[in-house]
Specification:
Role in flagellar biosynthesis. It is found in: Cell membrane; Bacterial flagellum basal body. The protein has helices spanning 3-42, 47-87. The chain is an all-alpha fold. The longest helix has 41 residues, at 47-87. The chain is elongated and about 65 Å long.
């Protein structure tokens, strides 16, 4: 196994990690920004007003994009297992 193969696997792992985190992080960012904007307009400073909507939105994002996330991880894992013989020099 050479250095380029290790770097390629590491790069693919970082890319897949970023792709899987993106929907959840973007939803949390948008909802958090909207709630903080609402709080600053109305001057209501309640902690649960920020936490609960973000929790619900992230749960919905996981519900909507969960199947895609799992299929991406399964594809990545299958590709890694398929590359094992080539990485070990067997073919």
């Amino acid at each position: 196994m050479d250095t380029n193969a290790v770097l390629d696997i590491g790069l693919q792992a970082c890319v897949i990690g970023a792709k899987l985190c993106a929907p959840i992080l973007i939803v949390a960012l948008v909802v958090g920004f909207a709630i903080s904007l609402l709080q600053s307009i109305t001057q209501i400073q309640e902690v649960t007003l920020s936490f609960v909507p973000k929790l619900v939105a992230v749960a919905l994002a996981l519900l909507v994009s969960g199947h895609w996330m799992i299929s991406e991880m399964v594809t990545f894992t299958n590709d890694l297992f398929a590359r094992i013989p080539g990485l070990l020099g067997g073919g």
